[in-house]
TrEMBL record:
PROSITE patterns: AMP_BINDING. Its main location: cytoplasm. Belongs to the ATP-dependent AMP-binding enzyme family. Residues 25-408 form the AMP-dependent synthetase/ligase domain. SUPFAM superfamilies: Acetyl-CoA synthetase-like. Residues 458-534 form the AMP-binding enzyme C-terminal domain. It comes from Rosa chinensis. The keyword Nucleotide-binding applies. This is Putative 4-coumarate--CoA ligase. Its EC number is 6.2.1.12. It comes from the Eukaryota. InterPro entries: AMP-bd_C, AMP-bd_C_sf, AMP-binding_CS, AMP-dep_synth/lig_dom, ANL_N_sf.
Length: 572
């Protein structure tokens, strides 16, 4: 006989797919007159934003966009890009935000691989888009070319065109009462984000409505984002859909402050003018804020919450940024995890610790976001969990609904990315006795010197403590005796007088076990960065490989002419 609980009807009748587009409907209904978006001279309320998204979604349907068609967009953090995060899924389509720092060849690859049906282009990026479309045309049938729509400057239209249509015309022609295509299955795709390809070829990561919805809720909770936030768009919306805050700000009925250029001047100017409360950014932005000229800065009266991640934030940088009026929360994630998957949730008892202890705790990557099913660090050979001793390294693995559906058109890579239901991040970490995870490296970045593992992250953190160092990156350099040894690439603060390689090495030897100290320090005017602002270790590794160690003692001699030859070869 069935138990009473089993006799209850299935809830099919009240099933509603989890989708972040519902956050917009709710904001329009309950916060209708609150400011949804500010961009220089433009302001909208949530009622207007909803109205514009409905119009755009209906216009997309009138352009014959069908279910799950891909709509690509190449734009900085402007209102149109924000609106597309709702309008494109409301039309049943899949949003593909393209990194606007990519070159035309990369843009072509994405348009081709995604099979984009519509391609929105911000007026400032028309030259890159024109070239990308020219290359695409050479290898595609005319019927495969996307319909191109320019997004002109909303404040002062320039009249730039790349086809017949302009974004505001679509908004104008659309139906404000359009209700949006019903999401029948919450596992349906909502967006397609290409990885930046730091470690391998860019891959198309597909997010589901369910994953996006759950991640959004988790990040609001993990960051303790309260009601009516004023959110400054310092993080590109094209990066993992702005770590889900495109949808998250609507969920809180907050205000989006859009930003075309992420400069210190523009950040401080908008903070002051709009009383910003929240922003997300890679740690690299901290340097920009710290190095700002006196006339670019403003005095911050109420602490601004910063969520940082995407690269390890060195503890010394965390210590420097907070006295300026920023309160930092640290998150870790990757494109495949819909942005942040771990947050270093702060514990009140840590407030009593000395500041440098606090920064060290905050530099750890943290614990799983609430809606992730599980996180672990495993030995990939046995899939056994590592002990919680803060020392034993293994691969960070994740499981849960907010992990991607898979790589678009690449089942082989998708299968490789998962093992026994776990997503393998490719990052090496440890678990501390309190359960908090700390990343030690990307698996490809660990330096194995004489059988010892050296964490480049740990060494970089010491370099960042040197008073003259602005940026630092450590990679493996071939060594005849040790196999590999650490090589540091460093940029110096603008006010630095004379610092030598020997000074830096001596500083590291004083603060680290000697085997971990770099054997070579190369000073650079600027470190190479990826299109998402991360230090491009791949390029540095090529350079380090070229350092021809002609003596195998601890004091090596580098032959610089050899460098140039190898570098030239590697570029061929
Ligand atoms: P890509 O893999 O192409 O660089 P992602 O933006 O997905 O693009 O990068 C994710 C990677 O960035 C992670 O796998 C990890 O190596 C690194 N990362 C992200 N957040 C952190 C963090 N808080 N600390 C250290 N590394 C991080």
């Amino acid at each position: 006989m069935s138990a009473p609980m089993d006799m209850l009807p299935k809830c099919d009748a009240n099933y509603a797919a989890l989708t972040p587009t519902t956050f917009l409907k709710r904001a329009a209904a309950f916060y209708s007159n609150r400011t949804s978006l500010i961009y220089e001279g433009t302001r909208f309320t949530w009622r207007q934003t909803n109205d514009r998204c409905c119009r755009l979604a209906s216009s997309l349907l009138s352009l014959n966009i069908a279910k799950h068609d891909v709509v690509s967009v190449l734009a900085p953090n402007i209102p149109a890009l924000y609106e597309m995060h709702f309008a494109v899924p409301m039309a049943g389509a899949v949003l593909n935000t393209i990194n606007c720092r990519l070159d035309p060849k990369n843009i072509t690859s994405i348009l081709k691989h995604s099979g984009a049906k519509v391609f929105f282009v911000d007026y400032q990026y028309v030259p890159q888009a024109r070239e990308a479309l020219r290359i695409l045309m050479m290898s595609s049938q005319p019927s495969m070319m996307p319909l191109v729509i320019v997004i002109d400057d909303i404040d002062s239209p320039t009249g730039v065109r790349l086809g017949e249509l302009e974004y505001e015309q679509l908004i104008h022609k659309g139906n404000p009462r359009f209700v949006g295509i019903d999401v029948a299955d919450e596992w349906d795709p909502i967006s397609l984000n290409y990885t930046s390809g730091t470690t391998s070829e860019p891959k198309g990561v597909v997010y589901s409505h369910r994953g996006a919805y759950l991640s959004t809720l988790s990040l609001i909770l993990g960051w303790e984002m309260g009601g009516e936030p004023v959110y400054l768009w310092t993080l590109p919306m094209f990066h993992c859909n702005g770590w889900t805050f495109t949808w998250g700000v609507a969920a809180r009925g907050g205000t989006n402050v859009c930003l075309r250029n992420t400069t210190a001047y523009d950040i401080y100017r908008n903070i002051k003018r709009h009383h910003v409360t929240h922003m997300c950014c890679a740690p690299i932005i901290f340097n920009m804020l710290l190095e700002a000229k006196p006339h670019e800065r403003c005095h911050i009266t109420n602490p601004i919450e910063i969520l940082t991640g995407g690269a390890p934030p060195p503890a010394p940088l965390l210590q420097k940024i907070e006295p300026l009026g920023f309160k930092v929360t640290h998150a870790y994630g990757l494109t495949e995890a819909t942005g942040p998957a771990l947050v270093c949730e702060w514990q009140a008892k840590w407030n009593k610790l000395p500041k440098d202890e606090q920064s060290k705790l905050k530099a750890r990557q943290g614990i799983s976001i609430l809606t992730l099913a599980d996180v672990d660090v495993k030995d990939l050979d046995t899939m056994a969990s590592v002990p919680h001793d803060g020392k034993t390294m293994g691969e960070i693995v994740l499981r849960g609904s907010s992990i991607m559906k898979g790589y678009f058109k690449d089942s082989e890579a998708t299968n490789k990315a998962f093992r026994n239901g776990w997503f393998l991040t490719g990052d090496v970490g440890v678990i501390h006795p309190d359960g908090y995870l700390e990343i030690k490296d990307r698996s490809k970045d660990v330096i194995i010197s004489g059988g010892e593992n050296i964490s480049s992250v740990e060494l970089e953190s010491v370099l960042y403590r040197h008073p003259n160092v602005l940026e630092a990156a450590v990679v493996a350099m071939p060594h005849p005796r040790w196999g590999e040894s650490p090589c540091a690439f460093v940029t110096l603060r603008s006010d630095t007088t004379v610092v030598t390689e020997a000074d830096i090495i001596a500083y590291c030897r004083k603060n680290l076990p000697h085997f971990m100290a770099p054997k070579k320090v190369e000073f650079m005017a600027e470190l190479p960065k990826t299109s998402t602002g991360k230090i491009q270790k791949f390029e540095l590794r090529v350079r380090a490989k070229a350092f021809n160690v002609v003596e195998s003692s601890d004091q090596q001699v580098i032959d610089p002419s050899y460098n140039e030859q190898i570098l030239a070869l590697s570029r061929l």
